[in-house]
Amino acid sequence: MDFKVGIIAMPGAALSNKTGSFANETPVFKHKTCTGCNLCIYFCPEGVVYGDKKTKIYDFDSDYCKGCGICAEECPVDDIEMVLVEK
Amino acid sequence: MKQVLEGSMAIADGVRMAEPHVISAYPITPQTHIVEHLSQMVADGDLKAEFIMVESEHSAASVVLGASACGVRTYTATASQGLLYMEEVIYNIAGMRLPVVMTLANRAISAPINIWNDMQDAMAIRDTGAIMLVAENNQEAYDMHIQAFKIAENQDVMLPVIVNVDGFVLTHTFEVVETIDSIDKVKEYLPPINMEYKLDVENPYSFGTLGEPSVYMESRYNLYNAMNFSRNIIIEAAKEFKDMFGRFYGGLTDSYKLDDSQTVIVAMGSVLGTIKDAVDELRESGKKIGVLKIRSFRPFPEDEIVAALKNAKNVIVIEKAICPGKGGILSVEIRDSLFKHKINSVSVNGYTLGLGGRDITPKNIHDLVARAEKEENVDGEFVGLSQQYL
Amino acid sequence: MLTKEETHNEFFTMGHTGCSGCAQSMSVKLIMEILGKNTIATNATGCLEVFSTRWPESAWKIPWIHSLFENSAAVASGVEAALKAMGKKDGITVLAQGGDGGTADIGLQSLSGMFERNHDVLYVCYDNGAYMNTGYQRSGLTPFDAYTTTSPSGKESFGNNRPKKYMPEIAMAHRIPYTAVASAGYPMDLQKKVKKAKSIKGAKYLQVDVPCVPGWKYEPKYSVKLAQLAVQTGLYPLFEAEYEKIISVKKISKKVPVEEYLKLQGRFKHLFKGDAGRAEIEKIQKIADENIERFGLI
Fold it and tell me: Does residue A1 surpass a pLDDT of 50?
């Protein structure tokens, strides 16, 4: 008798759900004025932004990014731009 | 060892023998003595348990829910209003398949407020998915609590078990109770709890997820099946208990002088003592009468009931609860069981007695036996009303 | 440095169905970064529960349990008691979570019980100021004059006619060892408070201001900006307290008029019509000024 059905889920199983399909817009990391402040990582509600303070190279995981635009809005040096997703 | 024990003390001692890890408690009459005794045992070092004095019954049930999900043995107790307050948590405990054991000291429901015994509270939670056993006397209450943990924690059951004991009639009455001397023997009967799924940082499952329409029914079906399956485990637990400790009260039901009975009285709980006395007297005067005791109300012992009643002419169901707008509850379920098995030669007369602590006397039983012969399929009729208040 | 693989190994993962721009999921992510693997979480019914654990999916990689709306703190009490009974409490953080309704309204009793028994539990209230999961109904933490579906504005109404309940001070009145208020707008401050709470034994209360895109009615990109404005106007004072004593406040660096905060949100748009609305904004400014005075924010 499998009593897990409907009540017990496996750890991190949500990763199978590619929420990138939510996005209407998607960030572009321009890598021009970036200071490596990491705010885009801190503020991403999904945790999809990653990168390196030293190289100042950042990117995001389009499989899960919902395109909220917080990273672009909060970037202190306007180094992230939101562009429309082609669907 | 034979001791004269208050019912609550017998229950507390039975619980102590099962060595629960976490106990939550909130006072409500007539359950309070049970948790008082348990807290004293913890204070004296006779029981190693986390004793959590909560701020409500809702939290009492929620604390044991959380603790049980961590894979430890848990216990709580309540009555009446307290039970109704924790009802949604009981549904939740059952839905999450957590083997919590609790005592329900059966008591009337307000209004009017009344602290005395009936079984209306138990009837309010009959569909929660909790197994509901009913003890007849303090000895059975003691033994039943030990069995309850074994049933709840069975890997194919994994459901809460609620042990019903009549408030005051059992909880506050002193009787001779034979307690078990060896906790090791209890351990042999009741091995340590071992849950496959629990809250554990090494195996981090998520419990209590959102069950969408695509899966909710299947989840409920699994619970329904487990409840049905638990019939075997309840019977097994009673038999194993008999083998080990020598005492037996039946599995899902028990019978008393049933063999040739044309009239059968069906009831649950402490009132069975009075009924059996009356039946002895009636037998002496030549009446073919016997008693069917319901030991497990949920799961409902349909097969046992049909087997016990199919040759009777007249069944009298004595109920300390009523369903306004319908009538009897237990009597309706018994009638339905017989109907399903196409037995229509039996008249099932359901009577409502003993609400809010009104005594049920041997005379009541004699009167009902005489009355039931003239009646057919009475549905929850009130017996013994005082005309001056109507 | 953070790699793509590492982002997938967080204890609160992506793939949940929170709204785009959700400040609650942002806060959970930040909190879980600090608490880490050895955490057992409980969750009240609400957005977080629904969007993070749609069976068979779960965004949690720590043991997590949802029971009911009002019992997150009581379930956490039971978890803590079980860990103690097993001798496993040391090194494990018990995290209880709820929204503002599940915390300050329906869950207040069980929360009070958990506080007063001083269980070693960190309770986090994600405060978005209404019952967002059921569609934006008023809670005890809905701010003054906010539109919700049960405190609508209209000819006879400017929205919610009562000020927000001071929940952190209710926590402090229990004399628990640590109470803190944080904001999704200040992640380092939030994480610092979580770190501190993690190091303290006993009951802890952390309330986090989490702007809600559909409930507050703004563009998703403004979640952080609004959280910061709530602090900079004085409407959402951030502070820490030990027992009943406030030990630190986050000072306002540059005081902002409340209007700047209100005008970005659809839930306050009825205040920007006519003189009567202007008078209401004055009342909200007064609330902010009183906070600034009371907590010494400047």
Answer: no
How many other CB atoms are found less than 10 A from the CB of residue C120? 21
Q: Which residues of C touch B65 (CB under 8 A)?
A: 67, 71, 75, 78
Closest CA to C184 of C129, C133, C137, C264: C129
Q: How many domains does chain C have?
A: 1
The verdict on residue C2 lying in a domain is no
Tell me the fold of B2-245. Answer: Rossmann fold (3.40.50)
Q: How many Cα atoms occupy the beta-carbon half-sphere of C135 within 13 Å?
A: 3
CATH assignment of the domain containing A49: 3.30.70.20
* Most B-contacting residue of A2, A5, A10, A17 (CB-CB within 10 A), to test interface: A5
| Cross-strand partners of C151 | C148
C104 has a pLDDT exceeding 80: yes
Query: What rounded mean pLDDT belongs to chain A?
Result: 94
Average pLDDT, chain C: 97
Contact B205 A1 (CB under 8 A): no
Domain ranges of chain B: 2-245, 253-389
- pLDDT of C253 reads 87
What pLDDT, on a 0 to 100 scale, did the predictor assign at position C57? 95
Distance from CA of C92 to the nearest CA of A (A): 18
Segment C109-126, tens digit of pLDDT: 999 999 999 999 999 999
Residue of C11, C37, C67 to mutate for B, most B C-beta atoms under 10 A: C67
Domains: count for chain A: 1
Chain A residue at shortest CA distance from C9: A12
DSSP secondary structure letter of residue C163: P
Contact C113 B54 (CB under 8 A): yes
In a domain, A3, yes or no: no
CATH topology of domain B253-389: Rossmann fold (3.40.50)
Which segments of chain B does DSSP mark as H helices, in order? 7-18, 32-43, 57-69, 80-85, 87-95, 120-123, 138-152, 183-189, 216-245, 271-284, 302-309, 330-340, 362-372
Q: pLDDT tens digits for B191-247?
A: 999 999 999 999 999 999 999 999 999 999 999 999 999 999 999 999 999 999 999
- Quote the pLDDT of residue A86: 79
What stretches in chain B show pLDDT beneath 70?
Answer: none
Domain span holding position C245: 10-295
DSSP B13: H
On whether residue C4 sits in a domain, the answer given is no
Grade residue A3 by pLDDT with cuts at 50, 70 and 90. Answer: low
Nearest CA in chain A to C56: A9
Neighbouring CB atoms inside 10 A of C137's CB total 16
C276 SS3 class: helix
Distance from CA of A67 to the nearest CA of C (A): 7
Q: Which of A56, A58, A62, A70 to mutate to test the interface with C (most CBs of C within 10 A)?
A: A70
